[in-house]
Specification:
Blueprint: H1 5-27, H2 60-66, E1 89-92, E2 98-100, E3 109-114, H3 119-134, E4 140-146, H4 151-160, E5 167-170, H5 174-179, E6 186-190, E7 196-201, H6 207-218
Parallel strand pairs: 3-4, 4-5
Antiparallel strand pairs: 1-2, 1-5, 3-6, 6-7
Length: 221
């Protein structure tokens, strides 16, 4: 049954009105309640305070100093020696430069290889702190942070454990691989001529044990 012409005309008018209102609603711009307020969807910048209100550490060298950790030593002019450390340049943990540990001479050295993810490294940490503080000046202590993704977190770990001696980073295990070190921790005893005279694999069990190893292999009391 066909509707009267007047009814069809009325229905068509209603449809046109509805479509017009829908089109207007769909094209209206979204205006902020206060146009003077700018929005930032990029998140906090590198210098913005984090959720705790503290700015993230961007200068690791300054932070190292605040933690009381010594700067890493400078490379010397020396040729590698047989049974010495590999001639591999490693970065200082605070990013301040690089050093070739194979060139360090003149003072016996305890080289401890560690990482924040290494449980046994945490266990032996107090013994390294105690002995290094007691033999400061007679013996060089140096830490090698292996395969840690965040040098800032590694610095905080070293400071919290009381390690005031310098540290370098070996993020891709280049230095560790050249030494044949597979597991951590490992402590190397290097004489004044730069030769590795002893390796202790695994965690140190006491400060007295470490003192005994220093005395036996490096002749330092």
């Amino acid at each position: 049954m066909r509707r009267p012409l007047a009814v069809r005309a009325a229905i068509a008018a209603v449809v046109v009105a509805v479509l017009s209102l829908t089109a207007c609603a769909g094209t209206q711009p979204v205006v902020p309640a206060d146009p003077s307020v700018a929005t930032d969807t990029a998140g906090p910048s590198a210098t913005d305070p984090g959720p705790t209100g503290e700015a993230p550490v961007t200068d690791l060298t300054a932070r190292r100093g605040e933690l009381g950790i010594a700067s890493c030593p400078a490379s010397a002019t020396a040729e590698p020696v047989p049974e010495g450390l590999p001639s591999v340049s490693v970065a200082c943990l605070d990013g301040s430069g690089e050093v070739d540990l194979s060139t360090l001479r003149g003072t016996p050295m305890v080289l401890n290889m560690w990482a924040t993810w290494c449980g046994p490294c945490r266990q032996e940490a107090p013994y390294l702190a105690e002995v290094s503080a007691g033999l400061e000046g007679d013996l060089r202590f140096l830490g090698v942070d292996v395969a840690d993704p965040d040098p800032g977190a590694a610095l905080e770990f070293a400071g919290r454990e009381g390690w005031t001696y310098p540290h370098v980073a070996d993020p891709d295990r280049t230095f560790a691989s050249a030494l044949g070190v597979a597991g951590l921790p490992q402590t190397l005893f290097v004489d004044a001529e730069g030769r590795v005279v002893y390796r202790h694999a695994g965690a140190l069990t006491s400060a007295d044990q470490l003192r005994g190893l220093v005395r036996q292999h490096l002749g330092v009391d």
